[in-house]
Amino acid sequence: xxxxxxxxxxxxxxDAAETRIRAxxxxxxxxxxxxxxxxxxxxxxxxxxxxxxxxxxGGSKALLDAVVADASVSVLGQIEARTTGLDGxxxxxxxxxxxxxxxxxxxxxxxxxxxxxxxxxxDYFGSSTAMAQTAQLLGGVEADGPLAGPWLVRVxxxxxxxxxxxxxxxxxxxxxxxxxxxxxxx
Length: 186
Prior knowledge:
The protein is mainly alpha-helical. It is built from eleven helices and no strands. The relative contact order is 0.10.
């Protein structure tokens, strides 16, 4: 059974509510930080009840995961745009540097990573097969074994959370130490 279009929203009322709640959650995370990210605070910002928030999104933990997932889609788009037409080792270098740049540019991801222990980021990265699969897909490293993707994620996160002073130094680091892992032996 398909949901009828709502006369007021022109689409699904539930989808409109979820979009509004996610936008409120993102703005709360950016404006007030992880420590202020509660179901009550998001519901107030979205203009809905806490019960509606839980019914639509599943609560603050699920909502924080959704905000991170939404931001990740944007990051993936930026990586894809920067790596179009590249393959092999050159693609890996650009994918890593594009991911670093995109994550640094996203205020919600910066906040989430800055408080990664309390925000659950360590658990997320430790248990997310999607993160490793994404790294493998974008880096084109499917054949390099099951640890290549998680290793690339760790490289990106180390550069994001512990940056070098200069972007050229970061590129040099990736080219000198990451690139050789993806060059054919011979």
